[in-house]
Amino acid sequence: MTATPLTTTSVDLEQPLQDVESCLNLLGDALHRRDSQAIELHAASLHAALARAIEQFSAAARTGTVPQGLRTRLMQAGGRVAAQRESLARATAALDRAIDVLMPGEPSGLYGASGKSERKSALGGAIQA
After folding, report:
1. Which of 29, 51, 60, 125 is the most exposed place for a label (fewest CB within 10 A)?
2. Do 13 and 44 touch, CB atoms closer than 8 A?
3. Is the pLDDT of residue 114 over 70?
4. What is the per-residue pLDDT across 23-72, written as a single tens digit (0 to 9) for each?
5. Closest residue by Cα to residue 20 from 74, 101, 67, 69
6. Is residue 60 in some structural domain?
7. What is the C-alpha to C-alpha distance for residues 42 and 28, in angstroms, rounded to an integer?
8. Is 92 within a domain?
């Protein structure tokens, strides 16, 4: 079995894609460690690497020369970005809920400006008669 020779386009696209994959790995590790400074650093690096890769891939796509293997890897990287974004969104929502439990909002009184009760029942809604 012989390897497919690398074209100039393949070589040009390989490095930006490797940069994206590397940044994704570093960001994933930082998320796993819950290291906020590393998350910020690697998220910024990933943003820049994605911008470079998309620019390179877009230019290559205009000439119709993006190899299928690199296209597949870029799609997989996009899936990993989406998964990390979802993971971060879930962690943020969990943190927001924990903060709400630990630091509930100040009660504003028994009645709102419209005269309706602002207190909530045990079921979470106002009781209607």
Report:
1. 125
2. no
3. no
4. 999 999 998 898 889 989 999 999 999 999 999 999 888 888 888 899 99
5. 74
6. yes
7. 9
8. yes
